[in-house]
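Deliverable D2.4 — example input (structure tokens):
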């Protein structure tokens, strides 16, 4: 099946970036903006997305429907899309690209698999540099969705089992977000105790690669922590479902929510230590 028309559900940061790249490479991109904000409608127009006015119209004309919403509503939206496809008598592909646990996307496949062919997707990379991101795919029709590479995307098929791509995404997200959250906590402690200098020196001597990692990821976290925190319960669910204990990831979820509620913008800060100092100073002022 050729991908001439693609429906995108979720015109947020990632959805807008994906839609624009598709549109710029000649794909017709459609959505429904019923009840969405003026900002979302502006984003859609800028990205070249057509508002068809209803989910039914989107499902009817799309070769592939991409779900890029919040993990909290992934199952609800998938069920609605599948039911819509059934009512219309169409059978296209459904790309589940939310950051959800493998068991969650497998539940979605069981729910709507008779109405639509589910392809599991996991995006590693951000919307600001989409050309450098990798779109991991799995499922029986994953190779068909891998044709997104014709439109500028980096795609990699992991296998024909729905859940593999979501697992790949969460194993990466759990590391980047979980480790950077823990590192910031330790730097907050070091700064509050007045030993941040020696701590950073020791990090540099014995694990310079880890220090480089947290300096890369921590400054961008506070502004996006609430939204990013949604992935951590999904990581915990994945770990639990495999017979291990996901409690550390549930703890990271609480810490990320706390960080987000500080309502700080530390984009552009040079390193993790400067973010920690900023938070400590803010706390002192209160």
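Example output (designed residues):
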């Amino acid at each position: 099946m050729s991908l001439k028309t693609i429906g995108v559900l979720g015109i947020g940061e990632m959805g807008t970036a994906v839609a624009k790249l598709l549109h710029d490479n000649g794909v017709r991109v459609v959505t429904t903006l019923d009840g969405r904000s003026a900002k979302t409608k502006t984003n859609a127009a800028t990205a070249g997305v057509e508002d068809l006015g209803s989910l039914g119209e989107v499902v009817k004309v799309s070769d592939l429907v991409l779900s890029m919403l919040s993990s909290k509503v992934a199952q609800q939206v998938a069920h609605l899309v599948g039911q819509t496809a059934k009512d219309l008598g169409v059978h296209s592909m459904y790309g589940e690209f939310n950051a959800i646990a493998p068991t969650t996307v497998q539940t979605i496949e069981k729910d709507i698999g008779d109405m639509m062919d589910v392809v599991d997707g996991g995006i590693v990379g951000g919307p600001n540099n989409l050309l450098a991101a990798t779109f991991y795919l799995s499922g029986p029709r994953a190779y068909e969705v891998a044709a997104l590479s014709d439109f500028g995307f980096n795609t990699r098929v992991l296998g024909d089992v729905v859940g593999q791509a979501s697992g790949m995404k969460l194993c990466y997200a759990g590391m980047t977000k979980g480790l950077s959250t823990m590192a910031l906590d330790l730097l907050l402690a070091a700064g509050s105790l007045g030993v941040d200098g020696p701590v950073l020196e020791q990090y540099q001597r014995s694990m310079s690669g880890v220090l480089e990692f947290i300096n890369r990821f921590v400054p961008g976290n506070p502004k996006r922590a609430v939204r990013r925190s949604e992935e951590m319960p999904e990581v915990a669910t994945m770990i639990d479902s495999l017979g291990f204990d996901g409690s550390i990831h549930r703890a990271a979820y609480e810490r990320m929510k706390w960080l987000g509620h500080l309502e700080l913008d530390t984009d552009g800060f040079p390193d993790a230590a400067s973010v920690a100092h900023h938070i400590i100073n803010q706390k002192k002022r209160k």
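The beta strands are 5-9, 28-31, 50-51, 64-67, 93-96, 117-124, 134-138, 154-159.
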